[in-house]
Design brief:
By secondary structure, this protein is α+β, with helices and mostly antiparallel strands. It is 16% helix and 42% strand.
Length: 244
């Protein structure tokens, strides 16, 4: 028994040494601010893994991918080419800073009010502990998730998320998650969220405050910096806090 434990510990140590990332989170936002799906990859590369060339599969219906290099408020935004190999779509990018984000935009399958979507993780580097997270749209009814072992939590706006952990993900292997729900209104989450925040501000506002006094700063939706710089003015979805 003791020998077996030693062997398992040694294998685990080798796996940790092969990992290229300190963290790797994928958050899926269906029908958040547009009628499709946005997947956000938020990752940190280990310092001893540079230079790092990332090759990552993306959904075949993807129409645009943006790469943001540096810290969360970084402004280095690059539009990545979507490459094809057989039926697979993928991107390639050289990582030169420890923190980076990817924003992947692709289609949501619709059949009247029924919605289905998926995401498949497949990249050329191993990861000790990755997270796949799906946000349940505010417009969703009867939300279903392919995974049985997941964590449920909410952010400060009462938006619900479902998260799974991938321990010791191996390079060039696939993990696919899927989800489904009904959206009888055809609306998107950002519209409901903005209405909710506006109503909250109206309730909390004091009409008798003098104009000469600066009113308190109330919470507003943060600006989604990457696409604000490269595309249009939109509001950023709240990213869930990373678990340990």
């Amino acid at each position: 028994m003791k020998q077996h434990l030693i062997i398992l510990s040694f294998i685990g140590l080798l796996s940790a040494q092969n990992s290229s990332f300190n963290s790797f989170d994928v958050v899926i936002y269906p029908e958040y601010y547009f009628e499709g799906i946005m997947a956000e990859v938020d990752a940190e590369v280990k310092e001893d893994k540079f230079p790092l060339k990332l090759r990552m599969n993306i959904p075949t219906s993807s129409d645009s991918v943006f790469f943001v290099s540096g810290a969360t408020n970084g402004t280095d935004v690059e539009t990545l080419s979507i490459l094809k190999e057989g039926k697979a779509s993928f991107i390639e990018v050289n990582i030169e800073k420890s923190r980076f984000r990817l924003f992947i935009f692709y289609d949501l399958i619709k059949n009247s009010s029924e919605r289905t979507g998926s995401f498949e993780l497949n990249l050329n580097h191993s990861i000790d502990d990755a997270h796949l997270i799906v946000q349940e749209p505010l417009v969703a009814e009867n939300f279903t998730f392919s995974e049985k072992d997941f964590e449920s939590f909410q952010d400060q706006h009462s938006l619900s998320f479902r998260r799974i952990h991938l321990n010791n993900y191996k390079a060039n292997t696939s993990k696919r998650i899927s989800f489904g729900y009904r959206n009888p209104t055809g609306n998107i989450s950002i519209n409901l969220l903005q209405t909710r925040l506006t109503n909250d501000e109206s309730i909390n506002s004091d009409p008798q405050v003098s104009s000469s006094i600066n009113p308190p700063v109330r919470h507003k939706l943060p600006i989604w910096q990457p696409l604000l710089l490269s595309l249009i003015h939109i509001s950023e979805p709240t990213r869930p806090e990373r678990s340990g």
